[in-house]
């Protein structure tokens, strides 16, 4: 851990070991180094606060594209939802959080549609569908959360936009792609329905009587 209190404890323990090596602590055992660390940690904690053992929430958004697509995408979307709801440090404004949640809902709807559909996505579209949920959205959120809030909302990047505005643009692109994938499947299903309807009309529709 890189917390100041932890470094203070390590420094105190190191000092004890140095004194022991110089023969200034007599017959005292090395266990006194642990006491030194504890004393240093306590002193540092009183001054800077206790070090946290909790992992930064956004670091948890790392998912592997392995196994069943439904399960892998579901795990990733669940992680994005939890992080957005947790909203560490209130870094995600309410309107932005709502967009992220809606995108997760659209991706889940796409999964349901995909399972019901008689159509097929191309290999490239299948790749995009999986990776929007498993990597593109989580990585975009990870990166955005790594930027200090004040910087994200006020400083212009090389593209002439703030990080928040840029992130909103990324979400818009992902939303458009998810809608496109859903429309593709719906179009294939509609065509299949039309062909079946025409078949039934030809087979059972009214016939001309000679």
TrEMBL record:
Highest rank taxon of the organism: Bacteria
Full protein name: 5-bromo-4-chloroindolyl phosphate hydrolysis protein
